[in-house]
Amino acid sequence: MRYFFHIFDGPKVFPDEHGNRLSSPELAIRQAKVLAAELSKAGEFCRSNLVLVLDENGKNIFDFGDMIGADPFSRALFK
């Protein structure tokens, strides 16, 4: 299954247009946690570490990170 890791930085959205093929949703969640941890190290470069994971069918698998500064409208685009 293909999983998409969308990143939110305050009002900015960085959609994952290609996704990654992974064997399970658990691996996608693990990858999202690693990605969010790396984003949190970016300091001023990336103010938020919200990662939204959707499968290839558009199902919300997981969202992880700091919601502070995430634009709810932008986030809703992927739900």
Description:
The protein has 79 residues and is α+β, with helices and mostly antiparallel strands. Helix content is 27%, strand content 30%. It contains 2 helices and 5 strands; from the N terminus they run E-E-E-H-E-E-H. Strands 1, 2, 3, 4 and 5 form a 5-stranded antiparallel sheet that branches. The longest helix is centred in the middle third of the chain and has 16 residues. The radius of gyration is 12 Å and the shape is globular. 22% of the residues are buried.
In short:
This protein is an alpha+beta fold.
Task: Round the Cα radius of gyration to an integer and report it.
Answer: 12 Å
Main structural class: alpha+beta
The helical percent reads 25-40%
Proportion of residues in β-strands: 25-35%
Number of domains: 1
Q: What's the mean pLDDT score?
A: 78
* Tally of separate helices: 2
- Low-pLDDT ranges: 66-71
Gross morphology:
globular
Total strand segments: 5
Distance between the termini: 18 Å
Largest sheet: 5 strands, antiparallel
SSE pattern, N- to C-terminal: EEEHEEH
